[in-house]
Amino acid sequence: MVDPLSVAGLSIAIFDQLLKLGERTAQLIADAKSFNEDTDIYHNKVVDENNRTKQLRHILFEPSPIYGGVTLFESFDIDVQQQIKIFLSRLVHILREAFELLENRYGSCDPLRSPSPDPLSSKLHGPSSSSDISLLIASTSSQLTLVQSTRAPSPRTPWRALSRQSLSFLRWSFQDKKRTEEILRDFADLNGRIHENIKLWCLASSIGLNMQHLKRLQNDESSIQLGFNIDATLQITASEANSTESSFQLSGPSWLESLRKASPVEERFALIQHQGKTYLQEHRRYDGAHDPFEEVDERTKLRIDDLARLLHQPKERVFCIPRCIGWRYIPGRGSIAFVFEIPENCESQPVSLYRLLDMKNIKLTLGQRFHLALALAKCMTQLQMVKWVHESFRSENILFFPTNTRNTSVDQEASGIPSINYTNPSVLGFEFTRPELDFSAGFADLCIERDVYRHPERQGRPGRMFTKAHDIYALGVVLLEIGLWQRAITLEKNHFKSARDPFVIRAQLIKQAQRRLGDKMGEKYQQVVLACLMGEFGVTNDTREDLKLQQAFRTQVVDVLERIAAYI
């Protein structure tokens, strides 16, 4: 078995080979103007991915007192280190194929010839590190073709010096161009997945509980360029919520007046006009007071304030969460209003997925359904990464704000079909959303229309603490609705009113997915939904943070949907 120090040295070496390959591939593309009319796009893509690789290398392999004098990479579990090494080796293999295709047409440039020793590798391995690393790289060549046998470089004439006739002779065949373009897309896709997995390991594993580590991710320049700082800030905010004195309660009589005049939208939302601007209100019933004119008790006020603070923090768009500006209790109505900004360039009147599912004139294309499913799956994986659970994920809490540009079709205009970007849903419904470490057994809720989205362990009067698996189940129900384009409550002729056993509801949903979903959405989508509903991700002996579950969810749900959506 390879010891951790050797894995670290090998991974540094692979990073270095990847960077050299990236630099020379980018140069070849820049020189090869006959490659494609979009040459600059491919060149910039390789340059951008190479820059991301440099930032990841910096984050992972800079020794720091935060990690006891070693690197972040060495602070990971050995299985995580091995996964990073394998990911990087696959990346080298993909990029090498692109480089060799380009090199065959446009010149010679061997990126793996005489690599210079890495100073950090020397610190980790001592004087003989260069030969040790060479042996380690060679030991993996039979599996991943990481290195090729050394060959003497043969000088070739630079392409710029060639005649027009020679250039014409060297022009690519259609097949080679197409293959290289596919390879570069695969390279960017895999590098993106490496980036997301490393972010997951940085934030969702046990090391993500280290406040110094989070503050490094928040402030380090490489981390900022990678976008790790945004999620690190969310975790820090959640950890320090109770120690923050500032309140997000909307004060002043003008806000109370605006909230009282709000125009209802759907069942749980309303639109507010305040000082010339429109906001979205989401209301939550408050039953803590004996008198509806009493103020909110201090414990509830702290909990609500913490939630508003979390929802106020800047987030990546993939969270699909509008920015909350604050909250206010409305005396006399027994409700608490959360106030959200409305996305730019959108109409203020939203429509929920729940209502869209019941509109007979709404017909989404296959591509629109896959992109919507992908957006919601990415939202779920982001919530998991920052250690949040949603607890109320269902189609009535997924809103769309139609764009200002309406469909140009006269028939669609007459039928009232809204112009909606289905890749940009807004996820709300934050009644019980909280940091995962907070305990919540939940409140009794016997509404069958909400129970149909809940895991059997959480229906009625829940007896178990809410977990990530329960949110994944709810996502599976929503994805089933999107695939069949039908509300979950209607998937049983009596609307589940006679269901006494909560597991009966799940069995019916699974049956519907098995019988109908494959024909409508394909086998891969069907497998994604069934995995969510059945909780079968092949995970055993998981960590306390459910890290293996999160990785399996990303691989078996998010990555699958992303690959299909990219080709539809």
Automatic annotation (TrEMBL):
Residues 349-563 form the DUF7580 domain. This is DUF7580 domain-containing protein.
